[in-house]
């Protein structure tokens, strides 16, 4: 968590698992000053993604990923 500000990301893609540990870590992050201070959070530039196809690693899913990213950001400034 402490390394997040070092990335200076202006957008974030977030995948949060449904398991208890992932949910607990997500809540801890949301309640942190680090999270609230991130540029992407301040500017409301966060996209929440489902696990599939984002965590699959095949040629087919890479193609899907490229198409989905374009859909997410095509009409945004």
Number of beta strands:
2
Helix % is 40-55%
What is the overall silhouette? globular
Order of strands, main sheet, comes to: 1-2
SSE order in H/E notation?
A: HEHHHEHH
Low-confidence runs of at least 5 consecutive residues:
none
How many helices? 6
> Quick check: average pLDDT?
87
SS-based class: mainly alpha
Percentage of residues in DSSP E strands: 5-15%
Largest sheet: 2 strands, parallel
First-last Cα distance: 27 Å
Radius of gyration: 14 Å
Summarize the structure.
By secondary structure, the protein is mainly alpha-helical. 55% of the residues lie in helices and 8% in strands.
What does this structure look like?
- The structure is a single chain.
- This protein has 77 residues and is mainly alpha-helical.
- The chain is built from six helices and two strands; from the N terminus they run H-E-H-H-H-E-H-H.
- The protein has a two-stranded parallel ribbon.
- The mean pLDDT is 87.
């Amino acid at each position: 968590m402490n390394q997040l500000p070092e990335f200076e990301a202006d957008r974030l893609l977030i995948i949060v698992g449904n398991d208890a540990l992932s949910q607990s870590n997500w809540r801890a992050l949301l309640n942190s000053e680090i999270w609230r201070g991130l540029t992407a959070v301040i500017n409301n530039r966060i996209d929440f993604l489902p696990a599939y196809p984002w965590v699959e690693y095949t040629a087919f899913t890479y193609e899907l990923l490229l198409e989905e990213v374009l859909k997410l950001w095509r009409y945004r400034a």
